[in-house]
Amino acid sequence: MTIRTFAIAPALLAAALALSACSNSEAPADHAEATEHAAPTSSSAGLPEGNIAAGEKLANTKGEATGQSCIDCHGANGNAPIDPTYPKLGNQYADYLAHALQEYRNGNREHALMSSQAKTLTDQQIADLSVWFSSREGELVTLHGAHD
Ligand code: HEC
């Protein structure tokens, strides 16, 4: 029994070392490849590149589900919501907007008004809307300098 354990332990150690050496040497190559293919203007992971003009048009188009456009609720440039509890979208990070819309679409985030708005959006439409709202003047407040 003892003899067998002693015989196996070095073999396992050798295998573990071989595996870790292997993954260490491959990791940098994988990272380099991922960085190379990431388009700087792309939105949330996997979405196509957004088109600002298409996003503007869509943001002003009445949706079938509610009969309202994004602008009807979020206001001009996404900065004048019709209710103070509705978020401002102007100049928000496109990634953030795209992620929020994807979450409403797939049901991870639910809201009576927004879920129905996002349900039928395609990846391209999400990308377009996100870059358009993101390209607007911002009224978002940051805490930069607030604690100096
Ligand atoms: C009927 C009113 C209404 C319409 C139309 C509407 N929204 Fe919204 N939107 C809301 C409300 C209310 C919220 C906040 C929901 C919540 O609390 O999750 C919201 C939230 C969002 C958010 C998340 C913002 C954040 O800071 O997390 C995004 C992005 C968004 N809307 C984009 C859109 C887009 C794009 C359209 C058009 C396709 C649209 N909305 C149409 C009312 C509306």
TrEMBL record:
Query: According to the UniProt entry, where is the signal peptide?
Result: 1-20
A Pfam family (short name) is Cytochrom_C
The reply to whether Magnesium figures as a keyword in the UniProt entry is: no
| Matching InterPro entries | Cyt_c-like_dom, Cyt_c-like_dom_sf, Cytochrome_c_Oxidase_Subunit
| Keywords of this entry | Electron transport, Heme, Iron, Metal-binding, Signal, Transport
Domain named Cytochrome c is located at 50-137
Q: Which SUPFAM superfamilies match?
A: Cytochrome c
User: Per the record, which residues fall in region Disordered?
Assistant: 28-50
* PANTHER family documented for this protein: CBB3-TYPE CYTOCHROME C OXIDASE SUBUNIT FIXP, CYTOCHROME C4
Name this polypeptide is given: C-type cytochrome
